[in-house]
């Protein structure tokens, strides 16, 4: 476990999955601490897929591979590359084990950089091979609802950098989506009201096509709690349906689950990223604590 600290925040990160473990401001914990009764993870990095592939199978040059939801990086040990009081960097490279389920060479580096009341999460993917690399990558941080009370319905609210015209797609079956139907995101006074049953019917609020670049989270009384800013083209917002969970996930994605019934090539999936030999992908999203 590595600890980043300044005079505002204390952040903890584990080498297992290079996963964020804690964001504290004083005695207040902002990151969900994991409980299998609701969801046992905290902030896994999703790689080399985001979400599910249809029937847990995908094809590369006609050959079929099996890969579980969100890929394997979240369950792998990462090498610690560097660490200081305010920044830590980890690395995962392809090996014999990854090539069995994902036939691409890669180097994935994940860094966390603390700046005042903000935490930058940096992803870098490099292609060390002599053939093209195809991948998806995404975030899955879970944030505690402020002043959580399971007996009360209200959970606060969300706002975005766009206040009207937002459209969502939804999970159809087996963790995959129906892209033929778009649902308007209902907002009141520019915000999405969060209730204890908000996700019971919809599972995930999924916005694609770069509709938003910022998500702001507010307490029930309207006080700011935290925000995320990003450049990712797809964003998922999720809390476990039917569990009255104490947290909500705000997830910037460079990728998305399959469309229901998809049986095409992996490289032709929606929101796929491609790197030619020697090329590098880099992205940063920022968590800001109010």
Itemize the secondary structure elements and their pairings.
Layout: E1 2-5, E2 10-14, E3 19-25, E4 28-29, E5 45-46, E6 57-60, E7 63-66, E8 79-83, E9 87-93, H1 96-101, E10 107-115, E11 118-126, E12 133-135, E13 137-139, E14 142-144, E15 154-160, E16 167-173, E17 176-184, E18 191-195, E19 204-207, E20 214-218, E21 224-229, E22 234-238, E23 247-254, E24 273-275, E25 280-289
Antiparallel strand pairs: 1-2, 2-3, 3-4, 5-13, 6-7, 8-9, 9-10, 10-11, 11-25, 12-24, 13-23, 14-23, 15-18, 15-20, 16-17, 19-22, 20-21, 21-25, 22-23
- For the record, the CATH class is Mainly Beta
Strand fraction: over 45%
Distance between the termini: 25 Å
* CATH topology annotation: Beta-galactosidase, Chain A, domain 5
Helix content: under 10%
Number of domains: 1
| Multimeric organization | single chain
Q: Can you name the CATH architecture?
A: Distorted Sandwich
Helix/strand class: mainly beta
H-E string: EEEEEEEEEHEEEEEEEEEEEEEEEE
- Main β sheet profile: 9 strands, antiparallel
């Amino acid at each position: 476990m590595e600890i980043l600290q300044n005079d505002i925040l204390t952040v903890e990160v584990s080498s297992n999955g290079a996963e964020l473990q804690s964001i504290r401001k004083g005695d207040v914990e902002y990151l969900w601490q994991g409980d299998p009764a609701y969801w046992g993870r905290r902030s896994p990095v999703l790689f080399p897929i985001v979400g599910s592939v249809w029937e847990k199978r995908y094809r590369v040059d006609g050959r079929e591979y099996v890969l579980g939801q969100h890929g394997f990086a979240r369950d792998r040990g990462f090498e610690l590359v560097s660490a200081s009081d305010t920044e830590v960097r980890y690395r995962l490279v392809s090996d014999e084990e990854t090539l069995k389920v994902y036939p691409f060479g890669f180097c994935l580096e994940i860094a966390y950089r603390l700046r005042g009341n903000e935490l930058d999460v940096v992803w870098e993917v490099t292609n060390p091979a002599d053939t093209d690399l195809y991948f998806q990558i995404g975030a899955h941080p879970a944030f505690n609802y402020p002043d959580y009370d399971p007996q009360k319905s209200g959970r606060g609210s969300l706002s975005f950098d766009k206040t009207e015209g937002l459209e969502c797609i939804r999970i159809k079956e087996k963790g995959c989506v129906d892209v033929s139907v778009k649902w308007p995101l209902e907002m009141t006074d520019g915000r999405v009201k969060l209730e204890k049953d908000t996700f019971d019917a919809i599972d995930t609020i999924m916005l694609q096509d770069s509709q938003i670049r910022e998500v702001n989270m507010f307490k029930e009384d309207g006080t700011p709690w935290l925000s995320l800013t990003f450049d990712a083209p797809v964003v998922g917002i999720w809390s476990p349906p039917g569990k009255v969970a104490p947290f909500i996930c705000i997830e910037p994605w460079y990728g998305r689950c399959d469309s229901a019934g998809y049986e095409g090539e992996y490289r032709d999936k929606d929101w796929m990223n491609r790197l030619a030999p020697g090329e590098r992908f880099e992205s940063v999203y920022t968590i800001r604590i109010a």
